Amino acid sequence: MPPPPTPTCRALARTPRLPSSDWAGLCKRLLAQAASAGASAAAVQLQAAVLALVLAHGPASATGLSSVLERLLVPAGFQQLPPPLQAGLLASGEQLLLCMPTSRHQSTVQAVSQLALQPSSPGAAAGAGMPSWLLLAAAWRGLATLAGTAAASSKVGTLLHVACSADNTPPRPAGRCRG
């Protein structure tokens, strides 16, 4: 009997390297299995464990895990995640870019901004979702992590410009909230 996938994914996410295998294919199958199981606690835990594994080992190009993230960064794949995991993915900023080839950085930031600005996920209609402004805040948090890294500092201006131009409105300056 094989080990259960959720604890195995969690353990593998903490390892320094993954052994040779088709990790992208395995992660895609596990995410599809979890999505077909609905919004059960076990399915959400499996999705969270797979996402942790993908983000932890995605920077190693030999794993091919960037293809898993590319699937999650399109509306159909993104909406298969529960809202807290959607926010976590959008907030992962620097780690998300580290998992992607350099040639995909601009399109990745653009995808993050577009996903944050889309209406709500299907779960939101049932009351289980999260307000769209929380997804937008998560995306800005992810973009802010890019601004704090020396490696990305030369590209941050371009990336933030792309993110802001998605809805043609500049970010509002911090200040007092009106209640």
Tell me the number of structural domains: 2
Mean pLDDT metric:
78
Major sheet size, sense and barrel closure: none
Roughly how much helix do the residues carry, as a percent range? 55-70%
Assembly form of the protein: single chain
List keywords for this structure.
single chain; 179 residues; 2 domains; 11 helices; disordered C terminus
Walk me through the structure.
With 179 residues, this protein is mainly alpha-helical. It has two domains: 1-63, no CATH class; 73-169, no CATH class. It has eleven helices and no strands. Helix 8 (105-117) runs antiparallel to helix 10 and helix 8 (105-117) packs parallel to helix 11 (153-165). The longest helix is centred in the N-terminal third of the chain and has 17 residues, at 41-57. The chain is globular. It starts with a helix and ends in a 14-residue tail after the last helix. Residues 123-127, 150-154 and 166-179 have low confidence and may be disordered.
